[in-house]
Amino acid sequence: MAAALLRYPARMMTWLRRLEQATRPVDDQTKAALQRRWAELPAHVKISSQTLGRCGIGCEGTHGVFPKCNFACKPCYHSRDANQVRIDGPHTVAQIEKQMSYFHTSRAPHAHAQLIGGEVSLLDADDHAEALQVMRKYGREPMSFTHGDFDYDYLRRIAVGPDGKRRFGRLSFAAHFDTTMVGRQGIRRAYNEEDLDPQRRGFCDMFRRLKREHGVRFYLAHNMTVTPGNVDQIAGVITRCKAMGFNMFSFQPAAYVGDDRRWTEDFSKLDPDHVWRRIEEGAGVRLPFDVFQIGDARCNRTAWGFFLGDRWYSVLDDNDPADVAVRDAYMRHFGGVHFNAPLHLLVPRLMRVVAKHPDLIPLALRWFGRTMRRFGGPVALLHHRIVPMTFVMHRFMHTADVTPAWAMLERGEMSDDPRIRETQERLQACSYAMAHPESDRLVPACVQHSVLDPVENLELSRELPIVTIRPTVETPAASTTI
Ligand code: SF4
């Protein structure tokens, strides 16, 4: 009896210690990862709005897991051999396991990660689901990158297993829709962005149906490659499609990267300010992209906000010093908090932050009041629903610049050529990493696509060749490629 009584306080102490650890706003591994990330950043991006190393470590993506695609877009950033690699579920899942495990141990316990390669929907639905589950297992919040040309049954089979049980409470997809794409069912080639609106709407409708029938929530991003040919159609895409169900519009000015047989226009004509102005035209308002910076501004511009009716509002007003103070307080006190944690952990973590810094409460209340006044107060909420909407521009770089820039960085040299130096600076501040566990390193996605993909895809085409089954004598008309 006495021994049992003595054991009780010890157990209590262990339980309290575990509770303290589980409700820590930011765990030690994440703290260390953020410090490492900040220390690695070049000086020119260590500005007050920088989120890397303060709020997060940046985004991640897969490579070499399913290089093949069934479209023939112009341009295409995949190397020539990508389409010679067979889609193979076990290969995909095994590679993702290795890459995610590496991210988890070498970077941080949690991050957003893109399930990306060739076309993800060429994977069998069960393999696609398993890939997402593996990413979640390693603390990654996955987003599937697709051309969106699949049907509802495929989506349902990802979300709901063969046993009829729901596999996911929420799915995130980024769908590419634009006139540079070739191969979509029903509209193999579109010459006007507007012609693709029915496909955009149909894509969003599938997710609404999935939510209705199976209770799976969704987050959808709309991706668009920008060329001189469609840059002036950006505004129209946003205006017509903003209420379809997307919560992000992301634009990627085309770069000379990947398969050079698909380079059809003069991409060097694309001016980033011009592209951003077209995005602002679509949003109907100036989009402040310097409130929160992700890496280098020459790579990324992001504006976070929401639509209320037809008007877009930024979460923070960059011209209001009080809002900028809110940004600084957020980064200082909430940076690194894992907001996708289950609610029973997230709530006590946030409460601990607020208990330690009670001045956050009046700061948040005043921000809330200012924001309400900006959009017209509670009356406006009676008439319109708030639709969160993020606008992004991500500018990949040309292979001709990345190749020498990376070679010099590998030798520890900085170039004197302004163009190559800019490329090097951007690579050093890269916010989009790919994992190479076999060589124990992370590389920027630009390096992956410009330098490493051609060799990797050639090797994969030997490892996973596409096999053509020749027709037998009895069935002369039949021929299958797998
Ligand atoms: S270096 Fe390339 S992959 Fe990295 S953030 Fe810049 S454009 Fe993106």
How is this structure best described in words?
This protein is an alpha/beta fold and 482 residues long. The protein has one domain: TIM Barrel (Alpha-Beta Barrel), CATH 3.20.20. It is 42% helix and 16% strand. The protein is globular, with a radius of gyration of 24 Å. The C terminus is likely disordered. It binds iron/sulfur cluster (SF4). Iron/sulfur cluster binds next to helix 14 and helix 15.
Question: Mind sketching the topology for me?
Answer:
Layout: H1 2-22, H2 28-40, E1 59-61, H3 89-106, E2 111-115, H4 125-137, E3 140-146, H5 152-159, E4 170-176, E5 182-184, E6 187-189, H6 197-214, E7 217-226, H7 234-241, E8 248-253, H8 272-283, E9 300-308, E10 311-314, H9 321-334, H10 343-356, H11 360-375, H12 378-383, E11 386-394, H13 399-410, H14 418-428, E12 432-436, E13 441-444, H15 445-463, E14 468-469, E15 480-481
Parallel strand pairs: 1-2, 1-12, 2-3, 3-4, 4-7, 7-8, 8-11
Antiparallel strand pairs: 5-6, 9-10, 9-11, 12-13, 14-15
Helix pairs in contact: 3-4, 4-5, 5-6, 7-8, 9-11, 13-14, 13-15
The structure holds iron/sulfur cluster.
Iron/sulfur cluster (SF4) binds next to helix 14 and helix 15.
